[in-house]
Protein 1
Amino acid sequence: MSLQQMIPLMGKGVLETLYMTLLSTALAYVIGIPMGVVLVVTEPDGVAPLKGVHDTLGVIINVFRSIPFIILLFLMLPVTKALVGTQIGSIAIIPPLTASAAPYIARMVESSLKEVDGGVIEAAKSMGASPWQIVTKVLLPEARPSLLIGAAIVMTTVLGYTAMAGMTGGGGLGAIAANYGYYRWQMGVMLVATALLVLITQVIQEAWMKAANAIDKRKR
Amino acid sequence: MSIIELKNMGKTFSTASGAVTALEDINLSIEEGEIFGIIGLSGAGKSTLVRCINYLEVPTSGAVFFREQNLGTLSDRDLRKARSKMGMIFQQFNLLSQRNVLKNVTFPLELTGTPREEAEKKALALLKVVGLEERAKAYPAQLSGGQKQRVAIARALANDPKVILCDEATSALDPKTTKQILDLLKKINREMGVTVIVITHEMKVIEAICDRVAIIDASHIAECGAVSEVFSAPKTAIGKRLILGEDKGYQQVSLPSGKKLRLVFDGNHNDPIIAVMAKQLGVLVNIVFANLTEVEGRTIGQMIIELPDDETQYETVINFLKARQVRYEEVRE
């Protein structure tokens, strides 16, 4: 493949990869944050203990997390069709990616929120804070640096899963690497696509960690 | 008028290994405007007690009254409202690490829906009271322990509380900083009329600022009264242990059979007690034993004196010791 062909191909791949990663992650966070918050507040020693809700949600999350992504992709085909109107292309991988990442995010959010010092929550309660105020004014703001670190991990994981987009006839660097490298033995294309994936992962991870550190007021 | 009243209050925790009684049959009434101390060894139940006062822990029996309101009968909403009138400070300060000093102090005002400008104005005024107005933009991680506790005090004062609960508030601080924080609490009590409740395991904290003290031991109030009375003549075993120390080194020596008193000094007395007794009262006492001992982390001196076998002279000495606030107990074989 000539360089003239390679550049637009890779450019398109990068854009598609970023599109799938960022959109799925963003949608998954919309679902995952409330789930993580509910997990933490409904715990037996949480600010609004509700054992039934806590245990049910826990089971649902575990079920979704234990289904392999490739299987989820196929199982969700009817849902995907209903949601985005098609079962093929890059857009068709967004629903399964979101469904797969949301419970993962719920667990990440749960672990970040649990790091918040119990004494600070107690102090807020002693000042008359309601459970809702504790969530919005204490738990989420205090956990912000840790939540951001979690987001970097989630995004790089989702980025890896976008490689499966080839399965639905979608694009992105992963699909390019598989289609050109695996099926057509064009090793050069495969290596370039893979190198670009590595590069994107590096950039996201580093930039995000820097941002998390920069906003953490615990650092002097 | 008592501002807080605990009536037959008890708290039992159910744990995996069965029920654990943290508090039992607690009766206390705390007067408006006083500084009330609660002292006990660790595990005595004092932290649970202070949390029952603002219902962070819900008592399992009895009742808690705050300004004649039974906290157990309030709705969640009214309980939160009542809590906002009780400030609380902690051993570990518990400041919000991601908010600066000013925003920490405005936090309780945000909870009650105070407009931002008004809240910030008030917070700055309170930071002035605690002497930290220049650090308004700093974050907790940039402050020393004493400064953090000052911020916590300003925060506890934000909603004009009637009471401030101090849970081992000086236990993480060095002696010099402890004194500054205690002075500040005393100033707030005197100038703003805020009732202060101090939970501590340190005698010096009670001595420094409290008007009255309750000694808590094994889930019960062992004794309660004015600090001067309880400290000069503790009645219970735990009171004696906390105040007079438990070193019985003198039991190794043979003591004369006459009337004997054990005097305890911890560096608060500068006048020569024995010499003054001899000179002013004309009572000649015999020192039969003396040593230094360490109790709960502080050094105290003890001395056993033998008194003349004369009832009137004995009374005179007792009255003299009481007036001088010297701690003593009778020694019997």
Protein 2
Amino acid sequence: MFDGLSAKLGEVFDRLKRRGALSEADVSEAMNEVRVALLEADVALPVVSDFIAAVQEKAVGHEVLNSVTPGQMVVKVVHDHLVEMLGPDDAPVNLDAAPPVPILMVGLQGSGKTTTAGKLALRLIQRERKKVLLAGLDVQRPAAQEQLRILGEQAGATTLQPVIGEQPLGIAKRALDVARREGFDVVILDTAGRLVIDAELMSEVAQVRAAVNPAETLLVTDAMAGQDAVNVAKEFNEKVGVTGIVLTRVDGDARGGAALSMRAVTGVPIKLMGVGEKLEALENFQAERVAGRMLGMGDIVGLVERAADTVDKEEAEKAARRALKGQFNLEDLGNQLKQIRGMGDIGGLLGMLPGVGKMKKQMQAANVDDKTIAHQQAIISSMTPKERRNPKILNARRRKRIAAGSGTSVPEVNRLLKQHQQMSTMMKKMGKMGKKGQMPGAMPGMPNMPGQLPPGRG
Amino acid sequence: MSGEGEGEGAATGWRARLKSGLAKSSAAVAGAINDIFVKRPLDAASIKDLEDALIAADLGVDAARRLSQGVAKTAFDKDPDPADIRAFLAANIAEILDPVAMPFVPDDTCKPHVVLVCGVNGTGKTTTIGKLASQFQAEGRSVMLAAADTFRAAATEQLQIWGERTGCEVIAAAPGADAAGLAFEALQRARAQNIDLLLIDTAGRLQNKSDMMNELKKIMRVLAKQDAAAPHSVLLILDATTGQNAHSQVQVFAEMVQVTGLIVTKLDGSSKGGVLVSLAERFGLPVHAIGVGEQIGDLSPFAAADFANSLLDVDA
């Protein structure tokens, strides 16, 4: 259910890949699946309809029929259109105004405004060497101001001292006064969460906006948001005026369809994305990455980063490169298995991998869980270093010994070796495609992999 | 929250607030259905449009399809009154939701009845705890709060303010302290003081972060050391603005910490909370209450028919 988009598109594209030529009917059928998948990923209905119409038009016709591999063509059209709609990448946070530059954070309750304000402060201090003042305009939620103060402290920003009873508009004006007087470069104004149907609160934030004339009004939204995200974005844009979107909780397992809806309905760029609880976990928006994940092509970058949390980052990247070259031995696999348990939940990791829907089902069918990993670790531990580096020498007698040593069976040992073989082949293919600049989605059918998967280190 | 011991006036107040909150949001789906059937016959195309309207209310593709097929198979006039279609859908949805509409009733034989409150970030856990504490106290129970969100900045302060508002003692620790240790200590104190209810606030955690989920499991384990039945309830707080990811949330939290019931927050917004329908079908977990505002009284028992009627703008 929750990996709907990747699973569904995986099935569709598999089917397209298997066929030599692509008819209009094929495209229509695929588009039906794409439509359902996008809806299940919480892309809003009107946005889905537009998307499908545009892609269908691009996909049907000679462009596709003349191509050598029609399936790849459709995948590419869908992917490219998605990237186009989500983009541009790296839209900068606009600081192009006379200092102090006001930045206004708005959004629903619980979307992550205050945390993002703290993260943005850190980013501007570290990357742009700005002197940042944080001001909490949230007089609704208990301890919201205190939360901002603590985050400000962690980021090395100054936080405006609250005055009891002061209202948001007054706080905003005072913040700018203080910033002017004390020579701050940027003032980040964190507002209370509000519902778009709350006319009073919407007009309050519109007043703040009118008073401070921010260089950026950032709508902070949750990647898990449902169909209503489209209304939320529309309302905030119409009533307050939005200049950029910040997508939070991109490190969760939501497909993030709301991002597409909000981008489409407001026309303003998605500028930043929150990818973790740490204050540093705020990144430039990357359309390719989000689109790739939405289409089940995996989020290899995210995976490497996730691995870097547990492993040394440099080492992880080196290992990833090695794996993509196909130099992936059982020692690597053993290390990975160890790290998988450190990195945690298999389901979460799976969401980041290419062709995930199909594999996930296979893994569920094969009952792959933490216990399986423990068994596989035991098998690898029972090998000699020589065997791990060169699995080709594993003859029947060695396999028997390993099975006995690890308390498993020869079939289990065989299965692990077969998986390793397949993983190694698959990663080699991925590596080659990366070189050719081809899309990962254009990959030939995923090898049958009921077993363990490569995490970022792989 | 059990509804027992509550004055009729208070209950009516909640219902009115739910209705006024949902009324604003119901306009969209009800309006769409009116538009579909106002001048069109009941045919494949209008059924498809109906399905889309339900999807736009977060019901999910499968539930939307089933419900609209139900309309297709029912003997309506060829030119049906949109109001009849809405009433039919509302009745169907109420039927699905009715089995899960269960008020939260504390077990007064447990001293204390331990309630672990969990969920992803920003769903309204702390606010909900404040509201729950207020209701339980109004029902004459003694309540203690434990600030086991030792991670998020000022989470403890936020709960402490709710403690002041409700007059409940709040057990807190320094930021970064071990959440399980704090929960353990809170249970010890609640037992010593013969408290009726211990509400434990936890840090928001995304369900795919296994280290954070394991922390939650650890809290469960240490509580069980003192009282094998604790926590007696594990409440998952869901945000009504959430889309289909709610399924992943319920699935993982239920698997990891044996969720006993749901509370759905922010239903006073423009989001329809339609995902509840498919959640009820798939998991059958009790829905105890809904949050309909930021004020202390803005927590209402979940009533299936009210919810369904408000969603489709049907007058009961």
Protein 3
Amino acid sequence: MKIVVCVKQVPDTTDVKIDPKTNTLIREGVASICNPFDEYAIEEALRIKEKLGGEVHVITMGPPQAIEVLRNALAVGADKVYLISDKAFAGSDTLATAYALSKTIEYIGGADLVICGKQAIDGDTAQVGPGIATRLGIPQLTYVSKIREIDLEKKKIIVERLLEYGREVVEAPLPALITVVKDINEPRLPSLIGIKKAAKAQIPTLTAKDINADENRIGLKGSPTWVVKVFTPEARGGGGEILKGELNEVVPLLVTKLMETKFIK
Amino acid sequence: MALDFDLTEEQQMLRKMVRNFAEKEIAPVAQELDEKEEFSYHLTRRMGELGLFGPFVSEEYGGSNVGYLSYIIAVEEIARIDGSQAATLAAGNSLGISPIYYYGNEEQKQQWLPDLCTGKALASFGLTEPNAGSDAGASRTTAVLEGDYWVINGSKIFITNSTTDISKVCVVQAVTGKREDGRNELSCILVPNGTPGFITKTMHGKMVWRASNTGELYFQDCKVPKENLLGRRGDGFRQMLATLDGGRLSIAAMALGGAQGAFELALKYSKEREQFGRPIGSFQVNAFKLADMATEIELGRLILYKATWLCENHRPFSKESAMAKMFCSEMYHRVANHAVQLHGGYGLMKEYAVERHYRNQKLLDIGEGTSEVQRIVIARHIGVPGRAL
């Protein structure tokens, strides 16, 4: 079984600073990490490999320093990693990124399963995973909190999706793409031996040409969306009410209030 | 371009990994383990799984052979969060693994190192005795060769990692005869835990490192095969001194990491806590404390990394390791003191990790050579007249 995991390097901060002139992230002085949701994706891939055998390939698109997240992936046990890096990709939006990643997956020989994090913590779009699936023409299962079964003979996967109103059990034929939420597992730490191996590894870089990308579909040219302005919305005034007291007091109070506002009847 | 302060890719990744581990797995349980005086088999095993035991041991014995600086960084990062776990790790490596690795014969290494390097087993270093502390040459524990066996009698005290369920062997320093100059001939002998006549007793009621294991050991006609001798007969004193030179680096790393942890807590608190309508860190009297702490930590890191660099490059490092050990432990003392002061009354509560730092720092200018002994070592190296005693 061949699993491809797509990861992204993001700034390590919840307090992202935006350059007011260019509306882009200020990256200077901010450490970079692997997008946390992508770490769950790598972990799940490793667990599937440990159970069913196969290989885990990890890919990322980004500037040369994005190689760090790939080293971490190698340190925890990924078999192969690829950096997709080329000036031609600069300015890619989610559409162009999804295209480039799908071309990369085709270039490295496809996959039985593609795993992405549910979204990246910097852009928060959650579009790239589904975009890759669309371009590869394979089913997409988003917000997966558990893989119930992978049947390699019948080529199918059964997962649980974590949705706002509950869990949904879905079956799809393989190959497929899943995006995972943090409930799915607890990512492992690399061991010293793993780190030693990863620190020495030569990591291949793929250019736009290598993956046969159409130059009109990548970079600024291939990106129909652009960022006009990024800002933190003003906190809304007023706000709600916090009920205080024992459970048996606040529950009836809450029910009464909800009925008054006609949220429930 | 001879000076280079950059850590390698490997060392940076290692620091991140250990920091992650310490923050996610040790921090949530550290206070409770400390309060209950509970040794954590789970965390010891986890440190083993991550490869933190035996980082300087070659791979054929189960180590990862990433070098001494990597080991020092690992200890530093654990100590940033908790002194007890750092003690288990530092003693396990510097005092448990290293004498066997450096002085053991092939058979001894094959027998003990693989389990020690995975954290499945711990080895201890039986040096200190009730009446032989700083004067380590004054050991009274004796080992007499009778036929094919050493018969050991005596006792040891304050021996880290010696009485847990996974403590498998103790490197015991014992008097094995008289030298020509009339002084004691000392040798190190491997005594497996569980050997008849080897009695262990866990010590309780410590002020410091309460979640680490400390034992009192008694040897009553304890017999071990003569092959259990570590290295050559009469080499015990030299082995002990060399082991402590390396051990001092890890003690300094514990102090440096602890100081870093206490400093970070103090800095954070100084930004959050408000008095007289502003964050307390904005008062010059407190800002200067924080500036002093940051400066001293930086200095400590420089001497420790330099001493470690000398060690890794097989240069003499005894003087620098004594300086690093002395400076870092005394520096941790000052930093922890400031950190509690900045926390005010809250710093006196167990709920606040600075309380643990304040207690834990005290061991470091006593254990593995007191600050006074370090000054003797340094004084001798710089050529003061006499023996500086």
Protein 4
Amino acid sequence: MKRLGLSPTGLVAAGFLLVVLLASLGAPLLAPYDPEQQDLTAALAGPSAEHWLGTDRLGRDVLSRLMYGGHVTFIAVAEAVAVYVVLGAGLGILAGYLGGWVDRLINGISDLLLALPGIIILLMVLAVFPNNGAATMAALGAMTSPVLLRVTRGVTLAVREELYVRAARLSGLTAGRIMVRHILPRLAGPITVQVFLFAATAVLVQSSLSFLGLATPETVGPSWGNMVAHAAAVTSQDLWLAVPTGGILVLTVLALGLLGDAARARPARRAAPTRAYRPVVPAVTSSPPAVPGPATVNGAAPLLSVRGLTIAVPGPDGPVTVVRDVDFDVAAGECVGLIGESGSGKTMIARSLLGLLPAGGAVTAGHALFRDRSGSTTVDLARLGEREFAAIRGRRIGLVSQEPSSSLDPSFRVGSQLAEVIRRHEPMSRRQARARVLELLATVRLADPERVARQYPHELSGGMAQRVSIALALAGNPALLVADEPTTALDVTVQAEILDLLRDLQARLGMAVLLVTHDWGVLADLGERAVVVYAGQVVEQASVDDIYRDPRHPYTRRLLEANPHRAPVGQGLPTIGGVVPSPTVWWPGCRFEPRCPDATPRCVAGPVPLEPVGGEVGGSANRLVRCVRAEELVRR
Amino acid sequence: MVRATVRWLASSAALLVVVTALTFVLTSIAPGDAATAILSSQSGSYTPEQVERMRHLLGEDQPLWARYGAWLADLARGSLGTDLFSGQPVTEIIAARLLPSMSLVVGTVLVATLVGTWLGAVSARRGGFVGRLVDVVSLLGFAVPSFWLALVLIELFAVRWRLFPPGGYVDPRDDLGGWLATMTLPVVTLSAGAIAFIAKQTRDAMSDVLAQEYITMLRARGLSERSIVYKHALRNAAIPVVTMLGLTLVSLLSGAVVIEGIFFIPGLGERAVVATGDHNLPVITGIAFCFTLVVVTTNLIVDLAYRALNPRVRHS
């Protein structure tokens, strides 16, 4: 059953449906009584050994009648489903595959059908063909088919552009063959989901009409709908009769609905959304001994001191550690760059400081000591709960993210979003907040603050949106601004302006900046110190000047060589062969070793510590490198 | 805006023509006809000549297109024809029955929207147990047939505990309290399925929205969880949910047809069921026309709400 990908619930639902189906189709053989056999002496008897589900007003056996009634229901549903699938899937494939006017025509008709008041059409069909279940169910199938049609069309549109279908087209397969051979199999899943859901609807509609006496009235024979009508007439004498008659309907529809859900929910799709944004409660298990960090600017206590920070996120086979044992400091007013390739864990580190790790991610060890506004006490960001983060986010630490357009709520005007954040951090009147909004928009050098405040995010250019995003981050006067790839999504000229703005703000507001980037140019522009991250570890830490002049870690050196800003003109840009190893396969030794031209057997012998190294003449002494050959590989 | 209006008018007209023309086509191919239905309702026996004469009087000997043309011409004069049996103008029948039906349907939309969005938002936020509970409630609301729920509710709340009248309808202009009392059970009955549907739609939309980067950024800016979920996320999730409300209302019209009879509400649906039984074409067509008008009006309201909620559409 695992093969079918059915959950336990789906399995129970499938089993129940199978039993009901067999009992209904096999009613003539299996039913204990003739459904019409009356026994007025035993009318409205409750459940008993002879009549498991009791009897109705005429003393007929309820169980037998339910079985025969199921027969009617299943045949009706089968008819409706057949029409639904043939029309819905057939036209959906045609519309999706052929496109053009065929698509427009089919779409127009399906829009029209969806807007029809369904029951009126069914009533008209019933007026024309009294008691004709087949015609009614065909009409139901046809009227509902646009739902399936839309799903089918959507999938077909996606599949037809995939490589293997395009290849089939180029190799001369006819449209018909492609649709049947290549597209139809891909539709099996989505169609199954829709069929179960529609079958549930069909059961309900069929029994509604039968309840109203418009289809399969009681004189014709038992049906689930007319049995409820029968029960309705005697509720004041006996409410029991409503239980099995309604129960079978509820359970059958429920089972069909559950199967539809089970077919939709391939395990991977199900888990994600419900927990997608659950606040992460740090589960700190162990705290490593405090590591002596690099001396900080002026020797004062740093604003932020990260020690042994270790972060895990959920993987298919349990938690995966994506950041391990990271140490670095940020002094007040200082700009520190966190640099590395994508997948290095730099964004995880940055987001963990705000308690905003992705679903299920958590800090599993280490500290991130952050100085209070007063400067006298510190909080450990690695151990804060959702509630305590409220005092930090926006107020002490601001965040600017990579994609300016997706970091603003599309439904609210810029001014309203800013005002809300301002008033959240500092209670004030609307009028005062309004003035502050304009002031902040001017601070981020937006030319026409009045106008921008009235605009919606979609009306802003990328650069403007990023300025608004920065204004939002500044609204609470944070001491630290975390800028996560703040210019990556922008045009080059806009990039320079934003960097200029950030540098200016940092100087003017005395704000520390933690700059997350993969771009040496950005780092050189803004950063004072660089923390180089590779595969979840800090591999080198030094002033930006030192790093540029004298990179010590082989990875830093390769990364710098691959920097387009520094590459010699006229030569190909060097690249680093290989890829960052996946967190699932990390080994104790140096993680850069497989890509390192200077690797020796010592590199993989055991964990490599992050150790101070002596600087060259003129460089600052505060350098840390995680490389067993750091001293010997001094650049010649 | 002008283009949108033109598009709405065109699609509305198309829908009205399709529905009414379909009514004519279907009813004309019916095996029985109105002439025999009327004659047999007046006297038990009749001659073929009488039938012919009745057919002529009813215009049933005319070709279909001519009859439809005559109906359209009547419509242009504001007439929907007359009831074949009582001779009452169909517009009068509809006027008398519109308020009961709309009380039921609009009342249900309001209740279902409020409860459904609330349930959906809460479950998207809480996940876990509450989320599963809403899942179960959604499935049950979908699976429990309204006519069965109606009979259980009537038996319990009206017959046994006497909290509400078992049925009937009171005009709100005469007695607002009585109207509320009679509407309660039908609205609750019809709401169950709609609440389930709206809760599920809201939950899915909320889950999508809550996974967006701008929600993380709102959190990073220090906004309260309450504002993030119930102001920002709900406002954005409302956009897809509102479009589903149109479909909900159309399906509620169908639901009303089924339960109006059970609660003895003198509405359009109940009349349509009776008219279906005796081939009363003018009444069926009139009610179909009226339902379609409700549908196209709903579509317009949904479209306006969609524009109001979605600045990207509003400004383009």
